[in-house]
Specification:
Strand content: 15-25%
Order of helices and strands: EEHEEHHEEHHEEH
Strand order of the largest sheet: 1-2
Number of strands: 8
Shape: globular
Radius of gyration: 18 Å
Length: 220
């Protein structure tokens, strides 16, 4: 698993399969990610790109792959995926539960400035809920908006049995499937579930961003 690898992703859109080929450098980065881990390639790519540094422990750097990713960390991942663009942090936070000086304040407020997130409207103001696990539907919305909301062919029949055209973020989720970023959870009967309200694990987030990079590369 270690060393330089050439990766080819098959991406399906509008009934046409296109392939994107790119090189990633895989490093033995995290002590809790073995070479045979399901998403070892994707997690190590995340580290190689500087998108995740994990946690420093006496045993070494930990990624904690099966931990749910919090919304503030998701903001950081997307900000770093964008290349950590220059951004002047606002003196006043757009969210009542995020203050200047908080961890990932820059990343969260950049996300808001880019209209990737709007948070929740409450009586006391907009909330971001930074420490809450991000749900799979909200994650789809974040990535879809980050991609500038590309045109998506909305299928009459959902590709996921637990998502319907009336589901919140249906277009965002359908785009995830169309772009090859998510295949959902495959059942033995050939159907798939997206589990939109389920939390996203950190290893799955690595896979989503890795596939998103392939999507971006095949457009360029």
């Amino acid at each position: 698993m270690l060393g330089e690898q050439v990766v080819t992703l098959a991406l399906t859109a509008e009934n046409t399969t296109r392939e994107a080929t790119f090189t990633v450098v895989v490093r033995d980065r995290f002590v809790d990610v073995a070479d045979d881990n399901q998403f070892a390639l994707e997690i190590n790519w995340l580290a190689a790109r500087g998108i995740s540094t994990g946690w420093t422990t006496p045993a070494g750097q930990e990624f904690r792959p099966v931990t749910h990713i919090a919304r503030d960390a998701m903001a950081a991942f997307i900000y770093r995926l964008a290349g950590s663009p220059a951004f002047e942090e606002p003196e006043t936070s757009p969210f009542v539960d995020v203050a200047p000086g908080d961890q990932f304040y820059r990343e969260i407020t950049w996300l808001a400035e880019q209209e990737i997130t709007t948070g929740w409207t409450t009586a006391r103001g907009a909330e971001f809920r930074p420490l809450a696990p991000i749900a799979r539907d909200a994650m789809a919305a974040f990535l879809y908006r980050y991609a500038d909301e590309p045109a998506v062919t909305l299928p009459e029949t959902s590709p996921f049995t637990d998502v319907t055209p009336s589901t919140q973020f249906y277009a965002d989720i359908a785009w995830m499937g169309e772009a090859g970023i998510s295949t959902g959870f495959q059942g033995n009967d050939g159907t798939a579930q997206y589990q939109p309200l389920g939390p996203v694990n950190r290893d799955a987030m690595a896979a989503f961003l890795f596939r998103y990079q392939g999507y971006e590369d095949q457009l360029s």
